[in-house]
Design a protein that fits this description.
This is Ribonuclease P protein subunit p25. It holds the Pfam family Alba. It is found in: Nucleus. The structure is a single chain. The chain has about 210 residues and is α+β, with helices and mostly antiparallel strands. It has a domain of about 120 residues: Alba-like domain (Translation Initiation Factor IF3), CATH 3.30.110.20. It contains 5 helices and 8 strands; from the N terminus they run E-E-H-H-E-E-H-E-H-E-E-E-H. Strands 1, 2, 3, 4, 5, 6, 7 and 8 form an 8-stranded mixed beta sheet that branches. Helix 3 links the parallel strand 4 and strand 5. Helix 3 packs across helix 4. The chain is elongated and about 60 Å long.
Amino acid sequence: MEPSVDGDARVCVPGQTAHAQSSSTSPTYRELKRGHAVGFKKVCRIEEESLCPFPGLPAGVLEMKVKEGSKIRNLMGFAMARMQDDGGRAGLRRVVFTGSGRAVTKTITCAEIMKRKICGLHQMTKLQYKSLREVWESQEDTDSEMTVHRTLPSISILLSKDPLDPLEPGYQPPESVWEQRNGGEVSHVMENRSTDSSDSLMEPQAKRCCL
């Protein structure tokens, strides 16, 4: 009843058998999105409400839902105003950025901007999948409609001023700690490389002296 038409999408046409749906008379999801299916329009879009991937969060957590058409300037202006300390008013301790589909990249960008504006933030990242249902209706026949079921990737990023569990998958320490750890490893590697290069330069000289 629901043939696969595009990786993460399934089209259901009420009143048709599987053989009829697989025929060329029914538009595919690619044709619907590109506007090639003349006479069809999207009338409904319902996203599945996914559970919070960070159980046990205290009250007062700022939740930022990032959409594909959201403006980063507006999102960050709202979030920064509530996370930063303002005079005698203390800012919030935690914020969660959530986005799905094409908004995943914008969600990551928002989190990275806040980490650079507010130092010492601990990060926890979780990846999920959520279901989406779209209803497309024929403009020529009001009784004809199609339902498209899709699966979208979703990302949730928790930024906290308070320490988080470092053993939890997806944890990332603050930038200062991260740079110190990586900086020590890089400096150690560079020292080894410089020592090796100096030894290799000294070897030809030692051979000339022996000759």
